[in-house]
Amino acid sequence: MLRSVFRCLGTNPVVGRRSMSQSSLAGKVAIVTASTDGIGLAAAQALGKRGAHVVVSSRRQANVDKAVALLQSHSIQVTGTTCNVGKAEDREKLLQTTLDQCGGVDILVSNAAVNPFFGNIMESTQDVWDKILSVNVTSAFLMTKLVVPHMVKRGGGNVVFVSSVAGYQPMQVSQSACIRIDARWRPALKDAASPSLQALSPYSVSKTALLGLTRALAPELAQDNIRVNCVAPGVIKTRFSSALWGNEDIVDEFKKQLSIKRIGEPEEVGGVIAFLCSEEASYITGETVTVTGGIGCRL
Questions:
Q1: Measured between alpha carbons, how far apart are the two ends of the chain, in Å?
Q2: What is the pTM for the complete model shown?
Q3: Given 24, 187, 241, 256, which is the most exposed site by the fewest CB atoms within 10 A?
Q4: Which one is catalytic: 118, 203, 254, 275?
Q5: Could you tell me if 50 and 21 are in contact, meaning their C-beta atoms sit under 8 angstroms apart?
């Protein structure tokens, strides 16, 4: 009986496909923005382990060099360059470097984001909104617009935007939980009338916009065999979100909302991104996958 089960497992085509998934992106070229740390680096690593040549970038050369060395130590094909996605000339340089070094592009993971503000939304300024929307939304679209013609030349491709659970529900943080928060954000707490803050509201709006951008682009680009999807992480243990997960009181508040009672790891998001770029997700487009540990953000 057991021998027949094992014999079936050995010849099962699904099992066979799973064993080959580690090379499922062989020959593909993937640009990952803001990819020298956190979710971006984890995405580059997951794509590279599946055979893709990854192009990593950030604003500082030292960070690029460190990420390239790490990925190479895992036998991943990698090219690195500096890029501030908020600058048109840097976006063009990132694409041109990819074309020169790799011959084309098949995958774009748009991960770059900024959040210079923490506090109630009505206290934010126009400068804050301009900065957040420019980098988090406009640059994501313009980078997509740059790469799409080159994906078309290759017969198709994949775009993945990195949004946030905050795109569904702005995060509220109680003042009592913010006593030890990053000093640059403390002024937002001092005069707050409410016992809780809509702490990331302008950032949340930008992440909501990425959900809409995903839905708008997916049907338009499907005719060129380009799939467009999105991931919405919850609280993940990255440097970018350290002011949240580094505060025990805030973590305790978040854990009340979690089914899996811990903070997520970047690799747990990177793997989902790699899946969305693979043939295993060939019938998925226009979707957002939430990676939140079970936070109830939608039906």
A1: 42
A2: 0.86
A3: 256
A4: 203
A5: yes
